């Protein structure tokens, strides 16, 4: 039997790798969050500076000019105001009226494709100074807008745009370098984990291999595990168990042989004569006026009863520990009449599953015990019926070729109730034993939908 082993080492390694992988993901998320927060604070500080410096400049400019800005004169003064602000803060600036119509702009090397409408402009209309960051063609453009008020009236919208791509590139580099460091740490962690788990699990694997060999019958396998921990204690306990098994091995083998002979030589054979008696009794009950049938049925019931009586006697002998051969002589036997009678009887059983036994039996002579031939034929036919597909045919042929008696039987098997060639009942074990005694050969062909048995024994 092959023992399937779930590797403790593999589970431990996979668990460690999984935990490390999850930790790496969370660390990346955490670092990204920290960097984004830091960059957001920097952008906010820059925007606060722009807001404070530009607003102070505009109010000073209006005071120096001795005017109050309104929606009319801002149209004429917007260009001068924007120029003055950019002299203090060299960045892109745009001044719009309260309806977001452009009045002027000063562009410091910011390409037109990055100058797009953003939500901060609408927010500025509602007296909210807001910053938005938009990714355009792998560039991160910050847009900051606020409303310019004089005498509590909205005069214009001031909009600044700046390229902060360098911050996000810096963030990506930091995350990349962090991942490289984590990769090296992961490799080192895996090597250390593998080394530690190997030291822990190798004695376990060694003990498992030893126990597996013992389970297959190698009771002389030496258990030698030098360990002072729980594994060493377990190994010592297994050694004690191994010694006890070796001491009782002969007794166990004898009991197993006795049990196998007891069941394999008797139990299966009891069913067939009982089935024959039952079926013929039912035929008599249904057709008691048919004189020929009554005679035939009585004869068959008598024969099956005698065979059943003989089997019970053998059973009693076996129960006393006396396993003996049938008390009959080794004779020259013509298989044909025996086979035809058995086919006739077994057809009654087969009819319950709507199975038909198609046979082609020639005169074939062998030297054997009659009971052995009867057992052999009953078993192979009974198995073909038992595991055959309902409504199918069982094909039996017996013929002589090249000095050998060929017995061939084939059926369409029912895979729902069928496992393997050696697992479809006690019958084939008995057949194999009989064929061996007849110095013959047994070939079993187990295909997808058919099951075939070929037996060859020497002819006279």
UniProtKB/TrEMBL annotation:
Its EC number is 2.7.13.3. It is an enzyme of class 2 (transferase). GO terms for molecular function: kinase activity. The chain crosses the membrane at residues 12-31, 174-196. It comes from the Bacteria. Residues 265-460 form the Histidine kinase domain. Residues 93-127 form a coiled coil. This is histidine kinase. It comes from Clostridium yunnanense.
């Amino acid at each position: 039997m092959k023992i399937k082993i779930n590797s403790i080492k593999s589970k431990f390694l996979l668990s460690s790798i999984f935990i490390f992988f999850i930790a790496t993901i969370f660390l990346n998320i955490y670092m990204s969050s920290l960097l984004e927060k830091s960059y957001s604070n920097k952008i906010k500080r820059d925007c606060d500076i722009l807001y404070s410096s530009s607003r102070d400049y505009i109010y000073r400019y209006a005071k120096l000019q001795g005017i109050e800005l309104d929606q009319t004169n801002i149209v004429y003064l917007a260009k001068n105001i924007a120029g003055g602000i950019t002299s203090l803060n060299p960045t892109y600036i745009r001044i719009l009226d309260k309806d977001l119509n452009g009045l002027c702009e000063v562009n410091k090397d910011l390409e037109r494709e990055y100058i797009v409408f953003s939500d901060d402009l609408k927010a500025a209309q509602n007296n909210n100074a807001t910053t938005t960051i938009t990714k355009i063609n792998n560039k991160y453009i910050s847009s900051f807008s606020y409303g310019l008020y004089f005498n509590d009236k909205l005069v214009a919208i001031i909009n600044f745009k700046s390229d902060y791509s360098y911050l996000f590139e810096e963030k990506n580099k930091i995350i990349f370098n962090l991942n490289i460091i984590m990769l090296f740490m992961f490799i080192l962690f895996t090597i250390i984990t593998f080394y530690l788990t190997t030291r822990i699990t190798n004695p376990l694997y060694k003990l498992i291999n030893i126990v597996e060999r013992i389970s297959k019958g190698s009771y002389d396998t030496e258990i030698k595990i030098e360990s002072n921990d729980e594994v060493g204690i377990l190994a010592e306990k297994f050694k004690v168990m191994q010694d006890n098994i070796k001491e009782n091995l002969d007794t166990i083998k004898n009991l197993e042989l006795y049990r196998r002979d007891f069941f394999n030589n008797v139990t299966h054979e009891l069913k067939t004569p009982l089935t024959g008696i039952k079926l013929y009794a039912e035929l008599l009950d249904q057709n008691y006026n048919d004189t020929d049938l009554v005679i035939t049925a009585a004869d068959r019931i008598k024969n099956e009863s005698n065979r059943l009586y003989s089997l019970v006697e053998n059973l009693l002998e076996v129960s006393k520990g006396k396993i003996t051969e049938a008390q009959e002589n080794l004779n020259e036997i013509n298989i044909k009449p025996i086979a035809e009678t058995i086919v006739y009887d077994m057809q009654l059983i087969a009819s319950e599953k709507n199975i038909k036994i198609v046979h082609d039996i020639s005169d074939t002579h062998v030297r054997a015990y009659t009971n052995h031939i009867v057992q052999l034929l009953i078993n192979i036919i009974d198995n073909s019926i038992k595991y055959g597909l309902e409504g199918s045919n069982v094909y039996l042929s017996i013929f002589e070729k090249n000095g050998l008696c060929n017995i061939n039987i084939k059926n369409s098997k029912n895979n729902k109730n069928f496992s393997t060639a050696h697992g479809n009942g006690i019958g084939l074990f008995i057949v194999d034993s009989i064929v061996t005694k007849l110095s013959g050969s047994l070939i079993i062909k187990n295909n997808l939908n058919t099951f075939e048995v070929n037996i060859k024994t020497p002819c006279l």
